[in-house]
Q: What sequence folds into this?
């Protein structure tokens, strides 16, 4: 699967300037037995996009050239067998991108002056980086993760450093260290200690020494120094690690049980359930602030007003529903948005415009379900001024 971060989204926004721009979204199924079904669904989406291109007065040669990179995918059964939960495709003259993503999408084909990127912003909502340290008497794993993404970090150099620093102090009868790099499949990676039955026979001080070493070295393997860290271990190791650790965002709740019995996907799912409230809090804070300031002129849920505010860079935080479109035309000279009843050449999804402009102007963007919005509008914002 591909991972879409803020830099990738910024690239897509900036490469939207060539028209017509085609955006296709669909849900996909994993596995070889689903490959044909995925390809057929994509073929149907391409046919719909081709129909929509008719209104753009493109000649058949230009249309074929535009869609050709996507059509070449149709014959690749291997590609369609190796999918995530959703697929997104972006095409405009001289440019194309395909993304296999961990998020299902409502089937959608959009042709307009710029890429329709609003559904992708769901990947950034509550999508901060967190970590999982899975430790047992025989295994150490560090997972780097977001809500929709998880990868294992190679700890082999950490284990080697520990062996080099402390090997003379650690009798082989007490602790042994072996390591191997991560490999596909998400199973164990770095084996670091294991003889003896209970905590007493392993020697508490030896474990504390090792845990202090991990705590000191771990930031070198992290992209952020304060992302939430979840422990996955048996109960008796957790208090020892807490005693050894000075990490500021070590979560109270742990994933209980021997992590050797769980693959990375299982650990990721359980860890997300633990950190989800941590990442939900900023969204709830924005919703509360919106309700507090409503009626003061510092908020709005009027789409036409939000278009003008987004164009001027006024929006500090935006809440929106990804699955709702409101079509219209925007006049950059006047800052006015004129509603349209449907998508036609020259029109835009005004909510998509608000989202992408807010994103480019470094505003906060939060994709929510309709029932999670602070009021009945598909978009609501707090203003900078």
A:
């Amino acid at each position: 699967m591909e991972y879409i971060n803020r830099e990738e989204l910024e690239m897509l926004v900036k490469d939207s300037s060539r028209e017509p721009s085609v955006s296709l979204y669909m849900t996909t199924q994993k596995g070889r037995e689903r490959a044909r079904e995925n390809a057929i669904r994509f073929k149907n989406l391409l046919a719909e996009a081709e129909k929509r291109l008719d209104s753009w007065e493109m000649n058949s040669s230009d249309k074929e050239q535009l869609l050709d990179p996507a059509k070449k995918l149709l014959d690749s059964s291997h590609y369609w067998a190796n999918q995530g939960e959703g697929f997104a495709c972006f095409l405009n003259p001289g440019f194309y991108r395909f993304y296999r993503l961990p998020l299902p999408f409502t089937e959608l084909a959009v042709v307009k002056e710029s890429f329709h990127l609003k559904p992708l912003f769901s990947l950034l909502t509550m999508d901060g980086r967190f970590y999982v340290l899975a430790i047992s008497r025989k295994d150490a794993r560090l997972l780097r993760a977001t809500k929709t993404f998880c990868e294992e970090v190679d700890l082999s150099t950490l284990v080697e450093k520990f062996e080099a620093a402390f090997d003379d102090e650690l009798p082989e009868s007490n602790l042994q260290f072996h390591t191997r790099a991560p490999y596909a499949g998400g199973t164990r990676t770095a084996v670091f200690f294991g003889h003896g039955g209970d905590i007493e026979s392993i020697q508490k001080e030896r474990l504390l020494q090792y845990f202090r070493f991990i705590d000191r070295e771990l930031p070198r393997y992290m992209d952020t120094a304060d992302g939430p860290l979840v422990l996955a271990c048996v109960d008796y190791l957790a208090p020892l690690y807490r005693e050894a650790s000075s990490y500021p965002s070590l979560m109270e709740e742990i994933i209980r049980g021997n992590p050797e019995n769980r693959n990375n996907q299982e650990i990721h799912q359980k860890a997300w359930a633990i950190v989800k409230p941590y990442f939900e809090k900023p969204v709830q804070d924005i919703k509360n602030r919106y309700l507090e300031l409503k009626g003061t002129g510092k908020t709005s849920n009027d789409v036409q007003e939000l278009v003008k505010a987004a164009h001027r860079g006024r929006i500090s935080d935006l809440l929106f529903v990804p699955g709702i479109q409101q079509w219209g035309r925007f006049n950059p000279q006047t800052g006015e948005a004129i509603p349209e009843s449907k998508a036609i050449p020259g029109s835009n999804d005004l909510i998509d415009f608000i989202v992408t402009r807010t994103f480019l102007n470094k505003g906060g963007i939060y994709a929510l379900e309709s029932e999670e919005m602070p009021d009945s509008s598909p978009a609501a914002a707090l203003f900078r001024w």
In short: The chain is about 35% helix and 20% strand. The chain has three domains: 6-116, 130-280, 294-383. The domain at 6-116 is CATH 3.30.960.10 (Translation, Eukaryotic Peptide Chain Release Factor Subunit 1; Chain A).
